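User: Predict DUF7010 family protein's structure from this.
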Amino acid sequence: MTTITNDSLAAAQQDMREGYQCGAPGVLASALVWTMAALVVLNTGASHGVWALLIGGIFIHPLGLLLAKLAGRKATHQKSNPLGPLALENTLWLMFSLPLAYGLSLYRLDWFFPAMLLLIGGRYLTFQTLYGLKLYWACGISLAIAAFVVLATQANAVAGAVAGAVIELLFAALLYKQAQQAQAS
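Assistant:
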């Protein structure tokens, strides 16, 4: 069992921030997938939008890594980083949760996008530990609030997909700014 001290946690988080540009490329990649899903909903319907988000989600991590590398980042963390397993574990948790969101869509199609907003938002809460950035709490909570608003207003599927896209685009921009500021200092 590895004991993590405050200093080792801070160093591990710094390694994650440097390697993945504060996670901004991954959030941007996710925002692009939400945008694609919204466009699919608009053009072909909600059921196709469900598949666009599920299938597009497969490409978020590789696209995020590509964007990080294009920005000159190593797009990896040190193998000894004790936070590495958390990154994998929260990805697996999300994958294991996807059948729940899909199952909801079979019962009520309009519940799929709010369910995904909640799942993704919950996942981002753990990113605060991964990156040491409270901005991820704000992102996760914003996605959760959007889910509840979409449900409470009985908004259509496109509203849920657009909410995910807009919120993640905003937070990607904020994270890129934070990464630039950290690199400049």
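The two ends are 34 Å apart (CA to CA).
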